[in-house]
Amino acid sequence: MSSVGQVPQEARAPGEPSSSPPAAIRWVRQRRPLLTALFVVAVLVVALLDGRPAADVLHPSAAAAFWLPWLLAVVGVWVRIWGAGNLRKNQEITRTGVYQMVRHPLYLGSLLMFLAFFIAVGDPWVGAGLWLAMVVLVYYPTMMDEEAHLAGLFPEQTAEYRHLPRLVPNLFRLPVALRTDRFTFRAAYANYGMRSLWFLPLLPVLLELLRRVE
């Protein structure tokens, strides 16, 4: 979605910012895929220079290096598909299903998948640090700009979701999320949620390739 201009004062919902986000925030959002790719390249370069082998996620083990990347990956894919199946893009500010727990479930799902890769590709602490930097520098500004865009499209709905956390879901609202859920596979497919399933076979393949290179 493209950015929108300043919303007229009379159209703003209570608590909505009085001006559009700074140009730097819009710049980050418009270049999010490129900036994300740079962080992926950075974590790969650091891992190769460090010489630490990638985690072995093909052979079952009780070690965190095996189960934690899988846990993050599976939860991330699940959250992203659930969010995509409830999303009604450009029709409303979605407030059903997982959107009752967190404002940006699609970004949450993607970031959990990235974290699974970042901590498995080399030193997990270095990977987690680069991941956190990506969240702060790329995804947080992106979420702020997207919220401003939605506030311009649906000013009357903005106040209803401001109490929800941006990225860390409120698990106490899970019963409400399940009760309001309107997931459909058609919406999940149309909103590119289903293609995240490719990450599950891709993760072990990429890590195994890195193990052989290192």
Could you explain the architecture of this structure?
This protein is mainly α. The protein is 60% helix and 0% strand. The chain has nine helices and no strands. It starts with 22 loop residues before the first helix and ends with a helix.
Name the overall outline. Answer: globular
Record field, number of beta strands: 0
- Head-to-tail CA distance between termini: 40 Å
The largest sheet, given as strand count, sense and whether it forms a barrel, is:
none
Would you tell me the overall average pLDDT?
89
Q: Helix/strand-derived class?
A: mainly alpha
Helix and strand run: HHHHHHHHH
Question: In percent, how helical is the residue content?
Answer: 55-70%
Number of helices in the DSSP assignment? 9
Radius of gyration: 19 Å
Strand content: under 5%
Low-confidence stretches: 1-18
Quick structural overview:
The chain is mostly helical and 214 residues long.
Q: Tags for this entry?
A:
globular, 60% helix, mainly alpha, 214 residues, 9 helices, disordered N terminus
Question: Secondary-structure blueprint of this entry?
Answer:
Blueprint: H1 23-30, H2 32-50, H3 64-86, H4 105-120, H5 124-153, H6 158-161, H7 174-180, H8 185-190, H9 199-213
